[in-house]
Amino acid sequence: MHSTTILFDLNTGITEEPSCLQEEPLRDPGADDAETGLFVEPKSPQFNIDSNDDDVDEVPINTIHIEPPTHMYEANYNGDFRKEKKGLLVMAALRLGSLPPATLAATTATKKCERFNGGVKVVGDGGGDNGFPPFLPKEVEKIKDPFARNLARRIKRLPVQIGCSESYIMSSCVQPLVQTDPSPVVLLHCFDSSCLEWRRAYPLLEESGLEAWALDVLGWGFSDLGSLPPCNVASKRCHLYQLWKSYIKRPMVLVGPSLGAAVAIDFAVNYPEAVEKLVLINPSVYAEGTGNLAKLPKVVAYVGVSLLKTFPLRLYANLLAFDGIPLSKSVDWTNVGRLHCHMPWWKDATVNFMASGGYNVVSQIKQVKQKTLIICGENDKIVSNQLAMRLLFELPNARMQRVPDSGHLTHVDKPRRVAKLISDFARAK
After folding, report:
1. Any alpha helices (H) in 1-80, and if so which ranges?
2. Which of 136, 211, 330, 395 has the fewest C-beta atoms lying within 10 Å of its C-beta?
3. Confidence class of residue 129 from pLDDT cuts 50, 70 and 90?
4. How far is CA 400 from CA 121, 204, 368, in A?
5. How far is the C-alpha of 7 from the C-alpha of 78, rounded, in Å?
6. Does residue 321 contact residue 81 with C-beta atoms inside 8 Å?
7. 3-state secondary structure of 371
8. Is 175 left (phi over 0), alpha (psi -120 to 50) or beta?
9. Closest CA relative to residue 122, chosen from 102, 103, 138
10. Are strands 155-161 and 212-215 parallel, antiparallel or unpaired?
């Protein structure tokens, strides 16, 4: 069993240095020839999914607040990486699961609900300053990345029932503008992250005509967990099922990057009727949970979690993911990646997940019945390509697609390629 751990991921192996994200310069809002409105000109090169150019797409900025605002998505470049074990304290900080649920959507929704016709509806209260939902941490104002800022304005919380109780969790997601696809694509995220990861690929999926949902797994992102629920694997699975049952309601193409692949496998095995196909991106599925970290004294666990939140550690993770980017950009992306850590219940939720034992899906892999596409970044430094090959042979019905010049966050540094792969796979018979 591969046991090496890297910064910010529970199931990891070591391979080559990830490739650098090369972002094209953005045009200022309102500049000559800059597109405005919800969609850009169909022939715009940044949305040419059929292009052979795998460079990161330039997405025009629209600062006019419409409903919903321009669909831009920021990746959490930091929430998915883990450092090698260097002492108990560092391990406690690095291998901890995290739990700040994310909240994203076109229309801001408060956690207030109204009953109608025996159901529940979200009551929106408009956006806060600069169009940001008021439930986001105030640190969102410090983020400079226009992609992240635009995505933050498209945040929604939906009420998701907890089991058979009358209680609801206001759960964050990016909801599709139109819900008509017989096989919607549902995007999960990496460890200690949020659906902000998908800010580059999500617009491309929408442009391709897919119905795409970007969800925050319970215990990560920006959801409202003021009354902290259990954040163990069973609770995450149940929460995802209740959200699917309430809003999606059709067999889905479930996409999981890194540890999100373990989330997807666990869900597909337990609720096969809800999953038509799987897409696993640089899957991290061979660690046996959080291991000895689950046995740490609570005081030590909280110290470790505090370390996990620190800016230097997150900056290191960002530099590990993308080599050669300007320091100023790394600093900004680090602020994006740790935004959810400012949620007031983040430490408690993270310790709760760690103590629960985390994900161990090794025994479930051969039980997966769905067709599966594995997307593998050739320069992934976080999960060994050998583990991806092992998964390919152990899954009953899987195929693999390698992406050159891509690291661990392939859906971030090669969004056009990933969107094309997902779109083709979702539509294939």
Report:
1. none
2. 330
3. low
4. 41, 21, 16
5. 9
6. yes
7. strand
8. beta
9. 103
10. unpaired
Q: What is the pTM of this model?
A: 0.73
Mean pLDDT of the chain: 74
What does the alpha-carbon distance between residue 273 and residue 20 come to, in Å, rounded to a whole number? Answer: 39
Give the separation between CA 125 and CA 106, rounded to whole angstroms. Answer: 12
How would DSSP label each residue in 89-109? HHHHHHS--------EESS-E
Of 284, 408, 413, 423, which is the active-site residue? 408
Paired strand residues for 221 = none
Q: How far, in Å, CA of 318 to CA of 312, rounded?
A: 10
Q: What is the pLDDT of residue 30?
A: 36
Q: How large is the average pLDDT for residues 391-403?
A: 97
Residue 292 tokens read as 């000895």
Q: Is 408 assigned a catalytic role?
A: yes
Q: How far apart are CA 276 and CA 93, in angstroms?
A: 36
pLDDT at 96 over 80: no
Domain residue ranges of the chain, discontinuous segments joined by +: 45-427
- Per DSSP bridges, beta strands 212-215 and 185-187 are parallel
Q: CA–CA separation, 266 vs 243, rounded Å?
A: 16
For helices 346-356 and 298-309, give the axis angle rounded to 10 degrees: 120
Q: Which of 239, 380, 384, 413 is catalytic?
A: 380
- Asked if residue 155 has pLDDT above 70, the reply is yes
- Segment (H or E) for 318: helix 311-321
Residue 8 has pLDDT above 80, yes or no: no
- Respond yes or no: is residue 380 known to be catalytic: yes
Name the strand (E) or helix (H) holding 399.
strand 398-403
Residue listed under structure tokens 């966050």? 409
Selecting among 258, 284, 330, 423, the annotated active-site residue is 258
- Rounded-to-integer distance, Cα 407 and Cα 421, Å: 16
Q: Which helix (H) or strand (E) segment is 402 a member of?
A: strand 398-403
Q: Which residue type does 188 have? A: L
Domain 45-427 in this protein, CATH class:
alpha beta
Question: Which phi and psi (to 5°) does residue 415 adopt?
Answer: -65, -40
What is the Cα–Cα distance from 201 to 191, expressed in whole angstroms? 18
Beta-bridge partner residues of 124: 109
The closest of 125, 128, 142 to 342, measured between CA atoms, is 142
Q: Which segments of 33-120 does DSSP mark as H helices, in order?
A: 88-94
Closest CA to 340 of 79, 112, 106: 79
